[in-house]
Design a protein that fits this description.
It contains no helices and 13 strands. The protein has 202 residues and is mainly beta. Strands 4, 6, 7, 8, 10, 11, 12 and 13 form an 8-stranded mixed β-sheet that branches. A 3-stranded antiparallel β-sheet has the order 3-5-9, with no helix packed on it. Strands 1-2 form a two-stranded antiparallel ribbon.
Length: 202
């Protein structure tokens, strides 16, 4: 060991390696602060996650903003696993949120719970106004406010100690949005059906 460290790195005590390079020298008696909450027996609940906000899932629908009474309206959410970093119980940690269920309030006194967020008709290889696992059919014309709430499972990790479950469920509501349901005769077709065969009424 160089008595005064590596001359090329003043102020850093180093030890020589077999290949001629130098690495920092760790003193064996350097005091360290133990992580008192890193034990596997530590119980973390959702109330401990104030520093780790789970973000609301973007919501979508088709047709966009309107629908026809008696035909399915397709809703879906772009929710995915999220990893946030911050202080948990005073220690640096990561928290991962994984969506587990989607609770839909369609605004007409009907609700539904789905295990997935769904997808659009094109991705599902379906024609317009097809039923999906996340679709809903309005039976009366009117304006409705739709609200989605996503339930997340949370897991936490201190450093490289692996993921451990957080007790409880994190619920995150998305921004409400409006759906206008009308009779088919009142829906205007914006394009020629020859140009857009998948358009409403075609």
């Amino acid at each position: 060991m160089c008595a005064n460290g590596d001359p090329a790195k003043p102020g850093i005590n180093t030890i020589p390696c077999g290949n001629g390079s130098f690495l920092p020298f760790a003193r064996p008696n350097t005091p360290t602060t133990p992580c008192t909450v890193c034990s596997p027996s530590t119980i973390v609940s959702v109330t401990d996650l104030q520093n780790f906000p789970a973000y609301a899932a973007p919501t979508n629908m088709e047709p966009n903003g309107w629908t026809i009474v008696g035909l399915p309206t397709n809703f879906w959410a772009d929710a995915s696993a999220q990893i946030q970093e911050g202080l948990l119980l005073g220690e640096p940690a990561q928290v991962m949120f994984t969506p587990t269920s989607y609770r839909w309030d369609y605004g007409d006194s009907n609700t539904a719970s789905t295990p997935t967020g769904g997808s659009n008709w094109t991705t599902l290889n379906l024609t317009e106004f097809s039923n999906t696992t996340t679709s809903h059919t309005y039976t009366t014309k009117g304006t409705y406010t739709v609200i989605l709430t996503v339930d997340y499972r949370a897991d936490y990790s201190f450093g490289d100690q692996g993921w451990r479950p957080v007790e409880g469920v994190v619920t995150v509501p998305s921004a409400p949005f409006t759906v206008i349901a009308a009779k088919e005769s009142t829906v205007l077709v914006a394009e020629d059906c020859n140009t857009n065969p998948r358009g409403p009424g075609c």
